[in-house]
Amino acid sequence: MSGSIKKIVIVFISVVVILFISPLFIAIDVDAEANEKNIIDFHAHVAGLGYGNSGCFINKEMRENIRFPLYLLAMGVSEKELEEQGDAIVVKKLSAAVAQSKHVNKAVILAMDGVIDAEGNLDRNLTQIYVPNEYVYEQTQQYPNLLYAASINPYRNDAIQRLEHAKAQGAILIKWLPSIMYIDPADPALIPFYQKMIELDMPLLTHTGMEKSFSSARDDLADPQKLALPLSMGVTVIAAHIATTGESHGEDNFERVLPMFKQYPNLYGDISSLTQINKLGFMRKVVNAPELQGRLIYGTDWPLQFFPLVSPWYHLGDISIKQAFTISLIGNAWDRDVALKRAMEIPDDTFAIGKTLLL
Ligand SMILES: [Zn+2]
């Protein structure tokens, strides 16, 4: 390669790198759209290692996984910081970042239950990430901009009592990750749990579609059609990520969930994680699907909105270069997420429906 070509290549690569990583360092306020700070993020995670008696843990398999250091980075903490200040530092930083957002005024923090063994107790070896309800409850009580969502594996011996307790403590919904918690939503053994959810008017937010954030997953359990049982009984179900990615029985999960919106008026979908690089093109499908009109709920899937997982530059087919550049300069992770999804023309009611339905 001649010297001048080499120089051009180096300059080109430098410009691309700067464009991609600038939002990580620059907190310039270029978020031009002036809107009220009234959006609720209905899908945010915290995690911990048990410091400060949080009760959280991450198993060996997940700690040795390449994702572990990336997630710490995305949550803005180091392992040393957790050790010195306790797991609660994650929640404190999250609350502070939401407080700085121009558009998002509250975030729903999701607890994360684990795998349940044959005796009905928590299996600490098979559980990859555990975030107990009590911890999320106590933490969210300390911050007016955080809301509590419980997670209960229905195979627990005391699942029904836990559900009643979560309701009494003000949990706004129950979160499941069936492919990680090994829950089969179509299992008739869960009928009493679903009946109690209806009685307590407790909605279910459950992961649908392939799971890529963990070291292993049983994707057959995230087939959206497994939700026909709770939906037909009358449980309000929010299909997290609207089953984008993966297939079940030889059919795309997204294609499998769409007709269900016509069939079940109590089915909703959340748009968390839809801008991730592994879901390119799905946001356009979601915006264009008539079945999904009036059925979408805003969520981020924080902390999973970081580069290289998410970047406005991946969506140049849907947004302009100018929009991508402007959005990439937004420092606040929540404002960047709102701006990108708005630029991709997500309907305005997506930011309002969750408040009517879940609060
Ligand atoms: Zn999530």
Write the layout of secondary structure elements.
Layout (H helix, E strand, L loop, with lengths): L2 H23 L13 E7 L11 E2 L1 H4 L3 H9 L3 H7 L2 H13 L3 E7 L18 E2 L2 H9 L4 E4 L9 H10 L5 E3 L1 H4 L9 H10 L3 E4 L20 H6 L3 E4 L6 E2 L2 E2 H11 L3 E4 L11 H7 L7 E2 L23 H8 L4 H11 L9 H6 L1
Parallel strand pairs: 1-3, 3-5, 6-7, 7-8, 8-11, 11-12
Antiparallel strand pairs: 2-4, 9-10
Helix pairs in contact: 7-9, 13-14
SSE string: HEEHHHHEEHEHEHHEHEEEHEHEHHH
Number of helices: 15
The quaternary organization reads as single chain
What overall form do the CA principal axes indicate? globular
Tell me roughly what share of residues is in helical segments.
25-40%
N-to-C span: 62 Å
CATH structural architecture: Alpha-Beta Barrel
Low-confidence stretches: 23-30
* The named CATH superfamily: Metal-dependent hydrolases
Task: Considering the chains and any ligands shown, give keywords for the structure.
five-stranded parallel β-sheet, 12 strands, TIM Barrel, binds zinc ion, alpha/beta, 359 residues, 38% helix, three-stranded parallel β-sheet
